Automatic annotation (TrEMBL):
One of its GO terms (molecular function) is metal ion binding. SUPFAM superfamilies: AF0625-like (SSF142535). The lineage of its organism: Eukaryota, Viridiplantae, Streptophyta, Embryophyta, Tracheophyta. One of its GO terms (biological process) is D-amino acid catabolic process. It comes from the Eukaryota. This is D-aminoacyl-tRNA deacylase. The keyword Iron-sulfur does not apply. Keywords: Hydrolase, Metal-binding, Zinc. The keyword Metal-binding applies.
Length: 347
């Protein structure tokens, strides 16, 4: 009846004219999770194929450069044929192409280690310690760290449970890795990897464990997903790891506890610090050089952006630092108003 009154030839009643300003709002755009796989990597092919064999998937459109896509609810998988670290801005490219904003990005990849030990790993990405002109051996952008996916901590714990359930432990180590490599992304991001040699990259049981991690972690089977920051309850403390080796053992001891969230993890090699005792006499008052301050600041800001409302606590691997390094870092954290947390602060 209202539509009839508004379309009459006679002027509408002034009492009806306000209705012109109450047109329905356009529907909100669906936020999607973007999974990125590559056919160039067997440790990416296996988990992608295992996940796509599970119910609910349908083919999606191909991106202009031939990247294939698949859809399942609000999850999208894209699969390209290049190095996993060579395709920058896939989250932005998907939104521009499909009109769907990307809430988070998850990469499926291989892990390589000198030890050749079989492993299933998760980690944030970035090269915050590099400066302009430094070689980018594995993608990224100098001085950049991607927002860490809040699922990293909860998914490490879920991955451990799945691997134990599937009989992969103790053969496979379940571990965090420190922040490293690209590609460049803008959304909260994590890598999920199989290591550490071709024999294990092609293991179907390892691929199935990763597929189950995504299936259960994203709630594709109908249950609630795991690691959604916006429904995390009362837990607000987020670990920013500083120091230690690539596998962050002292940080991992904390992250394995239920309810702990984890942001960036900067191992010692991502905190380059010039020993002041090695400086020339005229430069000794300049403080501790190197890009360590840049790395901490960039990683802190990226972590803060990924955990809105969170309390970011820097956790130091004290034994990995010399006294002058620890003193310099502690002073800088204080200057930047970055809180420091002890292991007991995260439980």
């Amino acid at each position: 009846m209202i539509r009839t009154l508004l379309t009459r030839a006679t002027p509408p009643s002034p009492f009806l004219s306000p209705l012109r300003f109450f047109a329905p709002s356009p529907p909100a755009l669906t936020m999607v999770t973007l999974i990125v796989a590559t056919t160039a990597d067997p440790a990416s092919v296996g988990p992608a194929a295992a996940l796509l064999s599970m119910p609910g998937w349908s083919p999606g459109p191909s991106l202009p450069d031939g990247i294939e896509s698949y859809a399942n609810g609000d999850v999208r998988m894209v699969q390209h044929g290049r190095s996993i670290v060579a395709e920058d801005d896939l989250d932005r490219r998907w939104e521009a192409f499909a009109g769907e904003p990307v809430a988070e990005t998850i990469f499926l990849s291989r892990h390589t280690a000198v030890s050749s030990r079989p492993a299933l790993t998760v980690h944030p990405i970035g090269v915050p310690h590099l400066k302009e002109g430094d070689a980018l051996v594995a993608g990224g952008r100098p001085g950049w760290a991607g927002p860490p996916n809040p699922r990293i901590g909860p998914w490490l714990r879920l991955l451990k449970k799945i691997a134990e359930r599937q009989g992969l432990v103790p053969e496979f180590e379940i571990t965090l890795e420190a922040t490293h490599h690209g590609p460049v992304v803008s959304t909260p991001t994590m890598f999920v990897e199989i290591g550490s040699t071709e024999e294990y990259w092609r293991r179907q049981d390892a691929a199935q464990a990763i597929a189950l991690l995504l299936w259960e972690g994203l709630g594709l089977g109908g249950a609630d997903g795991v690691g959604n920051w916006h429904s995390n309850g009362d837990s607000k403390k987020v670990l920013l790891g500083l120091g230690g080796g690539h596998y962050a053992p002292r940080h991992m001891d904390i992250v394995l506890k239920d309810g702990v969230w984890v942001g960036h993890l900067l191992s010692g090699y991502s905190l380059p610090m010039d020993d002041p005792s090695q400086k020339k006499e005229q430069n000794q008052g300049a403080g501790v050089g190197g890009t360590w301050k840049q790395a901490i600041k960039v990683s802190y800001e990226a972590t803060k952006s990924a955990f809105p409302g969170g309390v970011i606590l820097a956790h130091l691997d004290h034994k990995s630092f010399k006294s002058w390094q620890k003193n310099a870092i502690t002073k800088f954290l204080e200057e930047q108003n970055i809180q420091v947390g002890k292991p007991s602060d995260f439980v």
